[in-house]
Structure formats: structure tokens, C-alpha cells
Specification:
Oligomer: single chain
Largest sheet: 5 strands, antiparallel
Strand content: 5-15%
Structural class: alpha+beta
Shape: elongated
Length: 581
């Protein structure tokens, strides 16, 4: 159950008129009261006359009017309560009981307080109600509201459990602000897939990812096509910033600006400056982005380096230390960098992963001295290297870094769960699922090639590598033949051996890097880890097909034709006349 609370400066009539009206999209049906402060408030009912709505609004406003000029600026309190999709439909009596619990918990109308604020609960849909209350008590005092949103959320968690509804994760006040209903309706009306608030939040996060300083951050915002407005002090120093989407204007034709702090708590300029100052990203030179002699492109090299950095971040998260909170922020920047530079096949899932992980990067835990320069520099390198291809070495190294980031997301889920951060832990697990989907898309071709290479190994060599795998991993493979699930792992061990590495020592080193219990496919994790440790190409060459007897028979006539002597007389076409001599 999701409670949303707002306060307003108007009196009761505009809100009551809306609640009993048809709605902005004719979505209100069978409008009626389910509860009120005295159980005798007049119910305008569906399709009411204007005077009926005014009668109810006037009764709510009586305590406010009695104060005259002493009335508070905020006069109306509005709370909407909505059940989650898939929940059973509650009847009017159940909604009435829930409304009374909410006004009691928030201090609007404590149970037994006959001089409390006046309020009504209106139902005009199956899945939600609206509670409208005035903020002046009937005895003339102002409502004693404190932490009403937090109290409403806590009561909603109890209601979910008692009424058998879907139980949502409790928050801790660090989540970004959700789009308002007006923003959502406007997005639908203008054909947007998301609200400007959500688009701007993602664009600002991506601009921060790996930025070396404040100037570069603002430059990236402008290069992304956003309007940027800076707020200056009298001295000329920049105090804050606001962003707007081109074309997003209010009814007066003016741009709709969003200060960074309203997009997310950690996107205010002071918080961004703190990140840039305490964890500066290492500069990336243009020459570093040129292809190397090995043929690896800049995106491939940066992704390979990022995989090692992410693996070290996962190890920090496993230590269950508060310093890991900073590494979550760095991992979030790495995801944002990948989301804006990845191939089209994985871009959607990576954007969803970055958006989900954003929630996991914020909590009340503060890391004072954590060093996340490596993560921020890895993000910077990926951004400056540009977009990666979905094939070849670019595609293989994308799979390599995604395989590691899945483990980072799972480590983040464990870290948050140990501290009771339910929303952040759920966001981390959701991130892992998006990353797994993106990994399957990126790894399909190189993993298939490695399995083919493993199956094509000579029998003696394959048995030798399979024995190494069983010894190190303790696998219960059959003794009669190789374990088919280890085809790719055997292939990479054979490739590493040809490059001069000890296969057993390399596999042991890969296993010791981190526990593998959370990995759904241990082989895949080890394959990419070994390829990185041994500096093997991320996209191996497909094995050559062996020549068969049938192939030799088909090529024999062609070979025979090339060895026959040329005819002494020219061959003429009988359909053409003989040439004149």
C-alpha cells in the first residue's frame, strides 16, 4: 500500500471538487464517502451538483474560517492510499477502517480526540481512496504534524500485513522523489515514455560518471542537450544548478527547471562536489584511446580494465565494512558509464540496471575515508573511449565486465540486507537480474565459440584439462568422458597453456579471487576471470572445420582441371559461326 501526502494553501473546495468530479481522464467512477470525522458529513455522491460539493467543503473549512487572518499558510492536507497491483479489492468498510488508522497515526485525528482536525475519505476507484483534511483543529489550534509521511508509511506496512496485501519494503528517507501525478499525466498527454524528472535524473547521473571536475560535469550536461541554469552568489561563486529538458515548458511558455537536489538527494551541487573532490577520476588522454598492436580497441581495453576494478570492489563489499558505502557509489558510476556506451543489444537492460542500482547507492551509512578513485577512473575511461561494438573484442569484453558486475550487485544486496536496508537490497537484486540478461546477450557468441573449441580439443588434451578442472573445483564429473558443462573452461585452459601459463595454477588463482556460491554459472565466471588474468583475447577465434573425405572428393575435380595441359586447338561454341580467317 502506497501513501502519498501533500499539503496545499487552498481551502477545501478545489480538492473536494476534484475528488467528486469525473477526473482528468474520466477515471473517477461511483464517487462517494467511506468515512469522515464525525460519520455524519454530507456525501455529495457521484455526479453531484456544485452546491452539494460546496456544502461538504464548507463544513471542512469551518475551523479554518474561524481563525480568519490567523489561519496557517498551508490549510489542506491530502493523502492518497493505493493498493499494489494484484492486491484484492477492499470494500468500503475496510477502506474506512484504514483511513481512520492513517489519520490517527499521522496526528490528523488521534483516536478519541473529539477536537481533532476535520477530515473525509473519498473513494472513486477500486484500488485507492483519498483523505482530505484541514490543518486547523476544531478547538482552533494548529494540527501537530511531525514526520507524518514517515508515520503513514510505517502504518501502511502494518496494514499490508494485517489485511493480507502485498508487503512493500520500508524506506529510510534516502530515495529519490517520485514523479507527481501531474507530471505523469503530462508525460502521457505529450507521448513521453517517462516524466522529465526521470529523464533528467538519468542524464545528470551519466554526466557525473567519471567526471574529473565541476566544469566537465556542466559541459557534459550541455552536450547531452539539457538546459543548464547556474545559481551564483554575489561573489560570483556557483551555489547550485538547475536543469530542464528542451521543449518542456509550463503554461506560460517558460522552461520547467529542476534543481539537482530535487532530482535525487545525492545530485545536489554540494554532494557532487564532495564526490569530485574526495574521489577524483584520473584523466584519460586521447592517445590512450587509440587501438593497440594487439588490435584491441579503446572500448575493449577500458572494459577489460573495469572488470578488474569491479572485482576488487566486490571484495570490499564482502568485507562487510561501512567503507563499502562509497564503493557502491563508484559501482553506480561504472554502470552509468556502461549504459551510455554499450551496444544496442544490451543498452536497454544496462539502463534499467543503472536505474535500479541508483537506489542501492544511497543509504544513511557514510564512508569517510574510502578510496574509490579506481572505480571513478574506470567509469571515466569507458565514457572517453566512446561507444562499443556488439561484436568482436568489444562484445567479448562487455560480457567480461558484466559477468563481474553481476557479482558486485549480489554483494551489494548482501551488504544492504545485513544492515536492514530492505529497499536497497531489493534494488541490488533487481540490478543483478538486469545485468544477467544483458550478459546473456553479450556473451552468447563468444561462449558458443569457446564451447566449440573445447569440444574440438584432441581427446588426450581434453581429458588432461578435465582432470585439472575436477581437481581444483571438486566437480563430480563422469570418469568415462569430459563434463560437457566444462567445454568452455577446458578451451580457455588450453588457450592459456599455449600462451605459456600453468593451467592448474591459473585456475586456482581464479577460484581464490572470490567465492562462487552466488554465481548461477560458475564456469562462465571462471572463463572470463581466466581470460582477463592471462590477458587472452575476449573474443576467441572459431575453430577451423576439419576436412572430411566428402570435402576432398568434391575438390578433386577442380584440382584435376588445374593440372590438365591446355588444349592445342581452341574450343569453339557450335552455336556460334566459325570466325573468318
Amino acid at each position: 500500500m502506497i501513501p502519498k501526502i501533500r499539503t496545499g494553501t487552498d481551502r477545501a473546495f478545489p480538492l473536494i471538487d476534484y475528488l467528486f468530479g469525473p477526473g482528468k481522464h474520466e477515471e473517477h467512477t461511483n464517487q462517494h464517502l467511506v468515512a469522515s470525522w464525525n460519520n455524519f458529513a454530507p456525501d455529495p455522491g457521484p455526479n453531484p451538483e456544485r452546491h452539494q460539493v460546496a456544502k461538504l467543503a464548507n463544513q471542512l473549512d469551518q475551523p479554518v474560517k474561524a481563525l480568519g487572518k490567523r489561519a496557517p499558510a498551508n490549510k489542506i492536507w491530502h493523502c492518497s492510499l493505493r493498493t499494489a497491483p494484484g492486491d484484492r479489492h477492499l470494500d468500503d468498510a475496510e477502506w474506512a477502517a484504514i483511513a481512520r488508522r492513517i489519520v490517527h497515526a499521522t496526528g490528523i485525528a488521534p483516536e478519541g480526540d473529539t477536537a481533532a482536525c476535520r477530515w473525509v475519505a473519498v473513494r472513486h476507484a477500486d484500488d485507492h481512496i483519498h483523505i482530505a483534511a484541514t490543518l486547523v483543529r476544531q478547538d482552533g489550534r494548529l494540527a501537530a504534524l511531525s514526520f507524518d509521511k514517515r508515520k503513514a508509511q510505517a502504518e501502511a506496512r502494518l496494514i499490508e500485513k494485517e489485511y493480507g496485501l502485498r508487503q512493500l519494503n520500508p524506506g529510510d528517507g534516502t530515495a529519490a522523489k517520485n514523479p507527481t501525478s501531474q507530471e505523469q499525466w503530462k508525460a502521457e498527454r505529450t507521448g513521453r515514455t517517462e516524466t522529465p524528472r526521470e529523464s533528467l535524473r538519468e542524464a545528470v547521473r551519466q554526466a557525473v560518471a567519471g567526471a574529473a571536475g565541476e566544469e566537465e560535469f556542466f559541459t557534459r550536461l550541455r552536450e547531452a542537450g539539457l538546459r543548464v541554469k547556474l545559481r551564483h552568489a554575489p561573489s560570483g561563486d556557483v551555489l547550485g544548478y538547475s536543469v530542464a529538458l528542451p521543449g518542456d515548458r509550463n503554461r506560460d511558455g517558460e522552461p520547467i527547471w529542476f534543481p539537482g537536489s530535487t532530482l535525487a538527494p545525492d545530485l545536489s551541487l554540494p554532494r557532487i562536489r564532495r564526490r569530485l573532490d574526495t574521489a577524483p577520476a584520473t584523466a584519460t588522454t586521447e592517445t590512450d584511446n587509440r587501438p593497440t598492436r594487439s588490435g584491441r580497441s579503446a572500448p575493449a581495453r577500458r572494459r577489460r580494465e573495469a572488470a578488474g576494478t569491479a572485482e576488487r570492489a566486490a571484495a570490499v563489499l564482502d568485507q562487510d565494512d561501512d567503507e563499502a558505502a562509497a564503493h557502491l557509489v563508484g559501482a553506480g558510476e561504472l554502470l552509468d558509464a556502461l549504459a551510455q556506451t554499450s551496444p544496442a543489444a544490451t543498452r536497454t537492460e544496462l539502463r534499467d540496471a543503472a536505474r535500479a542500482f541508483e537506489r542501492a547507492t544511497r543509504s544513511h551509512v557514510r564512508a569517510e575515508n574510502a578510496d574509490i578513485r579506481a572505480l571513478r577512473s574506470a567509469a571515466r575511461g569507458i565514457v572517453h573511449a566512446g561507444s562499443a561494438l556488439g561484436r568482436g573484442e568489444d562484445g567479448g569484453t562487455t560480457a567480461m565486465v558484466l559477468s563481474t558486475l553481476v557479482l558486485v550487485a549480489l554483494a551489494a544486496a548482501r551488504w544492504h540486507s545485513a544492515r536492514g536496508h530492505a529497499q536497497q537490497a531489493a534494488a541490488s537484486r533487481q540490478t543483478a537480474e538486469h545485468l544477467r540478461t544483458a550478459y546473456q546477450q553479450a556473451a552468447a557468441t563468444p561462449m558458443r565459440t569457446m564451447r566449440e573449441i573445447g569440444r574440438a580439443l584432441p581427446e588426450g588434451e581434453r581429458r588432461r584439462h578435465d582432470t585439472t578442472i575436477r581437481t581444483v573445483l571438486g566437480s563430480a564429473g563422469t570418469q568415462q568422458g569430459p563434463a560437457r558443462e566444462h567445454d568452455a573452461l577446458a578451451a580457455v585452459l588450453a588457450e592459456a597453456e599455449k600462451a605459456g601459463h600453468d593451467p592448474k595454477a591459473l585456475l586456482e588463482k581464479a577460484v581464490d579471487r572470490r567465492e562462487l556460491e552466488t554465481a548461477r554459472n560458475t564456469t562462465d565466471v571462471l572463463v572470463w576471470r581466466i581470460r582477463r588474468l592471462a590477458d587472452l583475447p575476449a573474443n576467441p577465434e572459431r575453430p577451423r572445420t576439419r576436412t572430411t573425405a566428402g570435402t576432398r572428393a568434391r575438390t578433386a575435380p577442380a584440382q584435376a582441371r588445374t593440372t590438365q595441359p591446355a588444349p592445342t586447338q581452341p574450343v569453339t561454341d557450335p552455336r556460334r559461326p566459325a570466325p573468318h580467317r
